[in-house]
Design a protein that fits this description.
Blueprint (H helix, E strand, L loop, with lengths): L1 E3 L2 E3 L49 E5 L4 E6 L15 H9 L3 E6 L9 E22 L4 E22 L4 E8 L6 E10 L4 E8 L4 E10 L5 E10 L4 E10 L5 E10 L5 E10 L7 E10 L5 E10 L6 E9 L3 H8 L5 H20 L2 H16 L11
Parallel strand pairs: 5-6, 6-7, 7-8, 7-9, 8-10, 9-11, 10-12, 11-13, 12-14, 13-15, 14-16, 15-17, 16-18
Antiparallel strand pairs: 1-2, 3-6, 4-5
């Protein structure tokens, strides 16, 4: 039994018992000992889990192609959508204190020729910033939405995603914050019948970033692809906690996250939870997380979890690896006249290449390649021995 104050609380037995709610009171302030918070360094959260209303807001600019509509919803109109409800206290606080929501909507039977690009820039960390973004793609439509975070902030957000029946959505979330930023955010997606949802999370900047992408299906035949790329520098804490709830038959999910950590105190955390409920027959799921350690003081925690309540599945599996450079790859490149430092850089580029290509958005691909080059040129100590 876990003890909090003078009250004993039983640990979760099943992922099916996860609490989701729009009410902050349903999520007591965590102590840090809870399973879902045990990796998060509480002293660096700046009290955001106990904070209240704030006038601070991110500065947002939006590139809106034909076929997409942008709405600003008042607090009373920020309806509790078909997307899953907040899964932790940070997201419930964001819903409560965001003072409404920004909604991007794509009508049914619409195909966007260009991506929707939402640029969010923080202007300071002195007080908390809250935001609620709703993305709704109508039936049989196709869209790409890119959300780009820069600047400085103490920020907690909720992203509610509804992918209609037969629709296709690619959602790219870029975290390119300044080094002093704290960013907590829940991506809550509902995928309709025969719909396709691709989530791509890229985390490079910030002091502490904790993202919780979740997916559930509202009809059979849905597909979810969850991609992630992260690069933790010295002192950074980058945490990604995924949950895919297979509660409909004949649905498919794939998870592939890759990360690198380098420098004193660099810490990445990846948690991948997949639940296949008893009625989710015909499920096909696989998740993997790969971590590359570039220094002897970097750390990566990787915890895949798979819970299956039915034996009638097509496939279900997971993989997790954490280690250093492949010495054979380095040797092969060096025997062809490539220096050790450049060989290591080529290995890192190759490590991330498939994730970048699978994101499939040309503008994002070019930016990520440049960002990785910048990471390799700034503060990387090549040649450091690493224990696997």
């Amino acid at each position: 039994m876990a003890r909090k104050g003078n009250v004993e609380a039983a640990p979760l037995i099943s992922a099916a018992q996860r609490v989701t709610s729009y009410e902050v009171t349903d999520f007591p302030p965590p102590s840090g000992r809870e399973e879902e918070w045990r990796f998060t360094p509480f002293r660096r959260l700046r009290g955001i889990l106990e904070a209240g209303p704030s006038t601070s807001r991110l500065k947002c600019t939006t590139e809106l192609p034909d076929g997409a509509e942008l709405l600003e919803l008042a607090a009373d109109d920020a309806l509790r959508t078909a997307a899953p409800a907040p899964a932790d206290r940070a997201a419930a606080l964001a819903y409560r204190f965001a003072d409404g929501a920004t909604a991007v909507t794509i009508a049914a039977n619409t195909e966007l020729a260009e991506p929707v690009v939402i640029e969010r820039k923080g202007s300071g960390t002195a007080e908390p910033t809250w935001a609620h973004l709703v993305i709704e793609v109508g039936a049989n439509s196709s869209a790409t939405v890119v959300v780009d975070h820069t600047g400085s902030a103490t920020f907690s957000g909720l992203v509610s995603v509804i992918v209609g029946d037969g629709a296709r959505l690619t959602l790219v979330s870029l975290q390119d914050w300044d080094d002093d930023t704290v960013h907590l955010e829940h991506h809550a997606a509902c995928v309709g019948r025969d719909a396709t949802y691709k989530s791509a999370v890229v985390t490079l900047g910030g002091d502490l970033v904790r993202l919780t992408p979740t997916v559930r299906f509202s009809g059979p035949g849905g597909s979810a692809e969850m991609l992630g790329l992260y690069f933790a520098d010295a002192g950074q804490h980058l945490e990604h906690r995924l949950f895919i709830d297979h509660d409909q038959p004949d649905c498919r999910s794939r998870v592939a996250y890759k990360g690198a950590s380098n420098g004193d105190g660099a810490h990445s955390v990846w948690i991948g939870d997949v639940l296949i409920r008893a009625n989710a027959t015909g499920t096909d799921t696989y998740e993997e997380n790969r971590n590359l350690l570039l220094g002897d003081r970097a750390r990566a925690d990787s915890v895949p979890n798979l819970e299956i309540e039915t034996g009638e599945v097509i496939g279900a599996g997971h993989a997790s690896t954490t280690g250093r450079f492949d010495d054979e790859q380095l040797f092969y490149l060096m025997t062809r006249g490539i220096s050790e430092d450049e060989a290591r850089r080529l290995v890192i580029r190759g490590f991330f290449a498939d994730i970048i290509e699978r994101i499939g958005v040309a503008e994002v691909r070019d930016r990520l390649l440049a960002a990785i080059e910048a990471e390799l040129a700034d503060g990387w100590a090549p040649g450091v021995a690493v224990e696997a």
